[in-house]
């Protein structure tokens, strides 16, 4: 039985990273909000919101609670997504992150 449990990843230990902007884009669509709506509700500029969605700027710790307030997705989720993405980028993974396209970064493969 111990062997079978090693086939699964523990929570938060996946072999891919999802950019926060991708999740934000999906949540906005599901909630019927525009980027401009999000900007107004979070007190961010429309340009900054667009750059977050496009993955051009990092999602800072002070923005995460604002996103939580508007989207309902926990600030911890936003911070975790950003930290995971920074780890991937730091390992030389492509900015488009998913494993399907680029493989697991070598620096993260060894445990």
Q: For the CA atoms, what is the radius of gyration?
A: 16 Å
Which secondary-structure class do the elements indicate? mainly alpha
Low-confidence stretches: 1-6, 97-102
Beta-sheet strand percentage?
Answer: under 5%
Task: Give me the CATH fold name of the domain at 18-93.
Answer: 434 Repressor (Amino-terminal Domain)
Summarize model confidence as the mean pLDDT: 79
**Distance, first to last CA:** 22 Å
| Helix count from the secondary structure assignment | 8
Q: State the helical fraction.
A: 55-70%
Shape: globular
CATH superfamily of the domain at 18-93: lambda repressor-like DNA-binding domains
Keywords:
mainly alpha; 59% helix; 0% strand; globular; disordered N terminus
């Amino acid at each position: 039985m111990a062997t079978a449990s090693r086939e699964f990843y523990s929570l938060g230990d996946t072999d891919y990273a999802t950019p926060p902007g991708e999740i934000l884009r999906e949540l906005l669509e599901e909630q019927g909000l525009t980027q401009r709506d999000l900007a107004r509700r979070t007190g961010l500029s429309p340009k900054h919101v667009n750059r977050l969605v496009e993955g051009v700027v990092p999602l800072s710790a002070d923005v995460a609670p604002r996103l939580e307030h508007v989207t309902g997705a926990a600030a911890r989720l936003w911070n975790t997504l950003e930290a995971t993405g920074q780890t991937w980028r730091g390992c030389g993974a492509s900015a488009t992150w998913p494993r399907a396209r680029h493989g697991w970064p070598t620096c993260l493969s060894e445990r």
